[in-house]
Amino acid sequence: MALSAADFILQRLREFDSSRATPRNGGWHSLLVAPLAVIMQPLRDDIARIERSQSILQVLESAAPDDFDEVVVNYLLSNIRVERKTGFKATTIVRVRFFTAADFIAASGTLTFKTTIGLKFSNTSAINVTTSAMNSQFDGEFFYVDVPAEADLEGDDYNVDAALVNVFENEPAGVADVANTAAITTGVNKETNRQFIARAKLAISVRTLVTAPGISSRITE
Fold first, then answer.
1. pLDDT value of position 79
2. N or C: which end of the chain has fewer CB atoms below 10 A?
3. What is the DSSP string of 8-63?
4. Closest CA to 4 of 45, 51, 49
5. How many other CB atoms are there within 10 angstroms of residue 193's CB atom?
6. What is the dihedral of CA 202, 206, 210, 213, to 10 degrees?
7. What is the pLDDT of residue 4?
8. From start to end of the chain, where are the E strands?
9. With contact defined as beta carbons under 8 Å apart, do 167 and 113 qualify?
10. For residues 113 and 150, what is the distance between their CA atoms, to the nearest angstrom?
């Protein structure tokens, strides 16, 4: 723990002249130490506050490091040129199958598909399929339209097996069923504060490929 301003001044006086007595009720203390302490203590407090605010330890020593303000953590680690890995929203193709061919029109983001546990996906582009076009899309049982869709949120919670996105919210008439055509693997979680800090510990200012730390840093980037 840092010394108080008064103790710091007394220590420096003793270092300057170890033979000089500096009792707290003496003249030196009343004339020099006490007035200087009044001036210096706020300055030392500000220095300590700034030092703490620029240390990543304030994050690690908090009650919940992953709940710490991400903007602050990003700024701190930008000093060593490390950026947080952002998450990605899962993408997929949802096949909508119809009993009979019909016009199927929808604006981007207006179709909602879900898993049975409520994970939502929305179409990423406008859909405009005519009856004649759908007539050419027949799988031997039903007519179909393939709809590109994206998860509502980023993260790997949306990585699910094929056919699990099987609920069509506000389903139009004539739909037989819906399902994602393949397993979803593109959802990625954003780095938590602790993951980001752990990776930053391996980072170096010069990331050359001629040293083991440099190779490791470039690969994890």
1. 79
2. N
3. HHHHHHHHH-TTS---TTSHHIIIIIHHHHHHHHHHHHHHHHHHHHT-THHHHTSS
4. 45
5. 23
6. -10
7. 83
8. 89-98, 104-106, 112-115, 120-123, 127-129, 143-154, 165-169, 175-180
9. yes
10. 10
Query: Hey, what are 11's tokens?
Result: 């220590």
Which are the contacts of 17, defined by CB distance < 8 A and separation ≥ 6?
none
**Tokens, residue 113:** 């598909």
What pLDDT sits at residue 160? 97
**Average pLDDT of the chain, as a whole number:** 86
Beta-bridged to residue 147, according to DSSP, are 94
d(CA 175, CA 4): 76
- The predicted-structure confidence for 16-59, as pLDDT tens digits, reads as follows 777 766 667 777 677 777 888 888 787 777 766 665 666 788 88
User: How many alpha carbons lie under 13 Å from residue 41 in its C-beta half-sphere?
Assistant: 10
pTM over 0.90: no
